[in-house]
Design brief:
- The chain is built from two helices and four strands, in the order H-H-E-E-E-E.
- By secondary structure, it is of the alpha+beta class.
- The chain is globular.
């Protein structure tokens, strides 16, 4: 019985990790979407947290300076810092 509960817990954790950021956080808003591209705007205040979610391959353009601690599904924490105007590939 304990093994079944553990397996169910792992399955649910994977479901949460693979969720669309727009569906799990009000910080994300779809600006434009078609069959080729999806443009999201993210507004998050200092010290706010977002639920676990996943991003497809993306190219973020930072409109303001950005500093955030990001915790991955493996519980590793990364310090991410970008300047306004920076572009990166994820």
């Amino acid at each position: 019985m304990l093994q079944r509960l553990f397996a169910l817990g792992l399955g649910c954790a994977a479901c949460v990790a693979a969720q669309d950021p727009v569906q799990v956080s009000s910080d994300y808003r779809v600006e434009m979407e078609n069959s080729w591209v999806r443009v999201l705007r993210v507004k998050r205040r200092p010290h706010e947290k977002a639920p676990m979610h996943e991003h497809l391959t993306s190219v973020p353009l930072f409109l303001t300076d950005y500093h955030q601690k990001v915790t991955g599904a493996d519980d590793k924490v990364q310090d991410v810092t970008r300047k306004a105007g920076d572009v990166s590939y994820i």
